[in-house]
Amino acid sequence: MTKRTKPTSHNVVPMKARFAIPRQDMPEQNPTKRAGNFLEVNLGLTADQAVIEAQRCIECGNPTCMEGCPVSIKIPDFIQLICNRDFAKAAAKIKEDNSLPAVCGRVCPQETQCEEVCVVGKRFEPVAIGRLERFVADYERLHPEEMSTESVVAESTGKNVAIVGSGPAGLATAADLIKAGHAVTVFEALHEFGGVLVYGIPEFRLPKEILRKEVAALESLGVKFIKNFIVGRTQTVHELLNEEGFDAMFLGLGAGLPRFMNIPGENLNGVYSANEFLTRSNLMRGYEFPDYDTPLYRAEHAITVGGGNTAMDAVRTSKRLGANHATIVYRRSEEEMPARNEEIHHAKDEGVHVMTLINPIEFIGDENGFVKSARCLKMALGEPDDSGRRRPIPIEGSEFEIPADMVVIAVGNGSNPLISQTTPEISTNKWGNVVTDEIGRTSMKGVFAGGDIVTGGATVILAMGAGRAAAEGINEYLKTGEWV
Amino acid sequence: MYKIIKAEFIATGVKSFKIEAPLIAKKREAGQFIMLRVHDRGERIPITIADSNPEEGWIQIIVQSIGKTSMHLNTLETGDALHDLVGPLGRPTHVDNWGTLVCISGGVGTAEALPIASAGRKAGNKVYSIIGARNKDLLIAEKEMSLVTDGVFVSTDDGSYGRKGLVTDVLNDMMKDGLVPNMVVAIGPLPMMAAVSNQTKLLDIPCMVSLNAIMVDGTGMCGACRATVDGKTVFVCVDGPEFDGHKVDFKELGTRQRMYKKQEAESTKCYLERMADEAAKGGN
Ligand SMILES: Cc1cc2nc3c(=O)[nH]c(=O)nc-3n(C[C@H](O)[C@H](O)[C@H](O)COP(=O)(O)OP(=O)(O)OC[C@H]3O[C@@H](n4cnc5c(N)ncnc54)[C@H](O)[C@@H]3O)c2cc1C
Ligand SMILES: Cc1cc2nc3c(=O)[nH]c(=O)nc-3n(C[C@H](O)[C@H](O)[C@H](O)COP(=O)(O)OP(=O)(O)OC[C@H]3O[C@@H](n4cnc5c(N)ncnc54)[C@H](O)[C@@H]3O)c2cc1C
Ligand code: SF4
Ligand code: SF4
Ligand code: FES
Description:
The complex is a heterodimer. Chain A is α/β, with parallel strands linked by helices. Chain A has 18 helices and 16 strands. Chain A is globular and about 65 Å long. The two termini of chain A are 24 Å apart. Chain B has a seven-stranded mixed β-sheet with strand order 12-11-10-9-13-14-17, with helices on both faces. In chain B, α6 (190-203) links the parallel β13 (183-187) and β14 (207-210). The longest helix of chain B has 23 residues, at 261-283.
């Protein structure tokens, strides 16, 4: 985080009049049309809309919005630059704290972070911080000529850092470390960089082109990217540290182990984990089969089990693949769904059915071993559980069957055990998550970790925040060599 | 890009490739595989590492043309390159000194059995190989097998080479001659592995099989490769690929292997039509 001084105001609208400006709606693709394509749903604010939206900010002396942002973006500062139509400078301002604004502006749960605590939001609708962030990031991408070409990279320290995993945690760490003057190499198991951002989150929510540009930008700063390299298999943590000359390492492995429900019929043909379904569709582009080689099952009655962002992405993908009945099956009520409101609304607009308070107990197959229906139980809500949400309780004798010729299980991910198996010195907890201290240090000297591998499935911005904290820790360690 | 140092057909539709992959060559053990993509729109497919040379930095794979990706792969020549290649994946074969080891293989499974036979011998076993093929033209790696074993027996479905019959018949003959294995490894088409598992179960001889589940990432991230072993769901790519054959639910695995039959046929048809088109254009 760089220091902040109060920005110059460029807002020409008198203070009181600002409350009268309506929050600017994001133009989006027509729902019927977009349910048949994979193009981005949200189209982004226009420049004029962005300026009007920016003028709604009341320039708080104590900007609580910044406290709501896990990486403390200097929100009022970039907003003032938008008021002045200094879009390129606004982008640079955001980049001081967040290296992936085009991503965060799209997928951050803003309504529970920066926007939730925006002062204007106490009496009116909050300033649309996420939309503004997205606008300037897109502006930057489309107007590279306006961006400063001044080198941001410090003089070489002669130190080498290995980053394992190219998800948001790894990319954020790489960005900070390369600027600090270290040599940085990112190792990625898959054949594309970006982690969940490329294999999980669909094109219609986050175009892959954005990520490719971000990776290219890091490459141009000097970060070395190596794909098809599985740390623990291709080479081990020990080999990288002891033989390949890396002085420190960051593990941003993500939470990549799909959970199943352990109910009968789960291995029938046509039953997917969300990871498999989304990977086939996004990373492998199965939706363009046979132009792309990876096949993907298309169904008439596609059900997705779960209520998070992953479930919404899966069900909207199944709709786009042609399912006439694309249905969410969720065991609690809509209120408890962890998915962002925007995603739930978008899904419904596109014709997705949402069935709540039911839970599948068995999948039933046809004579060829393909799933044809799901047997479900109705649920009622009881007392709140550990998560603070009301616990779903099955209603005796309420069984019923719904047709399903495809099922996607989106009930969460655990952590992939590969690194902990091959590197026992790195301690994990009972869920298999890597244990770290607050600056990301693991139990193995020189090895840091952050993101979903530490917290379990969380958010893009939290993973980036953890990566940045670890980068600071790594800088310190490389300077002092101390590990106490 | 991963350079192909040498590519040559070793039987009808079966090609051997030596590929530059120094890190994998150094690391890999018997029983492990790679995931590869032929081109940038391609599918990721698993292929066993048949051999490697850490000094020269290459691995060898042996590929049978059966559908779009393997057909395309088998058009590549010496000097061409693969788009993506990652590994080594899967758990290495657990090799012990069992006494007498019999490796039973069919089709390209023989390429996969080769490193296991070789590792088995190094561990002190007497090793025999039984190779099954539909006919003589499809037989591979007999010579290589004979170099690392104490004896190779061949059966063909049509009797065009070796004994006419199935690999299970050969195993019966062997047992009649007094050669009783302490361990059997079976690698090949699913029906063959299922048959050998059944046979050895009745004979009370342990049997290890290498499951060829459909895979996507090969790293444990998607669960596409799940199978039921001993009543529990496993991910073949990280928990296997080798399992106790007596405990595998072969019926389920067979069904899962046919999940994309329709799409695979479509993909192969498109590919062959395009090839024919290009050949016609090239002929003008
Ligand atoms: C479908 C879906 C939708 C989501 N939607 C949202 C959303 O709208 N908003 C939001 O904030 N969050 C969302 N999330 C959560 C968010 O994507 C994750 O919290 C975030 O991506 C975690 O980042 P990460 O860097 O820790 O891990 P990941 O993004 O999982 O990246 C880890 C990377 O490490 C690689 N890797 C793992 N092991 C190895 C190894 N041994 N060697 C080399 N490479 C390795 C993996 O291949 C992967 O590329 C969503 C998640 C999913 C699955
Ligand atoms: C661990 C393992 C090791 C293997 N080793 C070898 C080897 O050494 N040599 C060899 O020739 N073959 C090997 N195979 C099989 C090989 O992966 C398939 O032949 C190949 O994927 C077929 O793809 P295709 O596009 O040519 O055929 P398709 O027409 O797409 O499919 C034909 C059949 O191949 C299987 N298959 C299809 N896609 C996949 C996939 N992504 N993953 C796994 N199986 C698939 C299915 O049973 C399918 O019905 C191995 C498979 C596994 C799981
Ligand atoms: S990164 Fe996320 S939380 Fe922070 S300002 Fe941007 S949208 Fe808000
Ligand atoms: S809290 Fe809201 S109004 Fe106040 S500075 Fe932040 S964005 Fe502007
Ligand atoms: S292939 Fe994805 S988990 Fe095995």
